[in-house]
């Protein structure tokens, strides 16, 4: 009974980790798209394209 519970626990942990990693990939894609949009918008600003869209 204990090995069966350990296998089920391992499967649950791996499923949760896989779900979390997939969510992190989507977050990374959204951040990349926002960064690219900011880069394009920055280059189209009046003032020679020297505006900054971020604070750092």
Annotation keywords:
56 residues; mainly alpha
What is the rounded distance between the termini? 56 Å
What's the mean pLDDT score?
A: 78
Shape: rod-shaped
Q: Uncertain runs with pLDDT below 50, 5 residues or more?
A: none
Total beta strand runs: 0
Helicity range: over 70%
What summary fits the major beta sheet?
none
The number of distinct helices, counting runs of at least 4 residues, comes to 1
H-E string = H
Structural class given helices, strands, pairing?
mainly alpha
Strand content: under 5%
User: From the alpha-carbon coordinates, what is the Rg to the nearest angstrom?
Assistant: 22 Å
Indicate how many domains the architecture comprises. 1
Description:
It is a single chain. The chain has one domain. It is 75% helix and 0% strand. The radius of gyration is 22 Å and the shape is rod-shaped. It has one helix at 2-43. The chain contains one helix and no strands. It starts with a helix and ends in a 13-residue tail after the last helix. The mean pLDDT is 78. By secondary structure, the chain is an all-alpha fold. This is Hydrophobic protein. InterPro entries: Lmo0937-like (IPR043727). It holds the Pfam family DUF5670.
């Amino acid at each position: 009974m204990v090995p069966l519970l350990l296998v089920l626990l391992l499967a649950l942990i791996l499923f949760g980790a896989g779900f979390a990693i997939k969510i992190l990939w989507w977050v990374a894609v959204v951040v990349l798209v926002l960064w690219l949009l900011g880069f394009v918008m920055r280059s189209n600003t009046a003032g020679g394209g020297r505006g900054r869209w971020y604070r750092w």
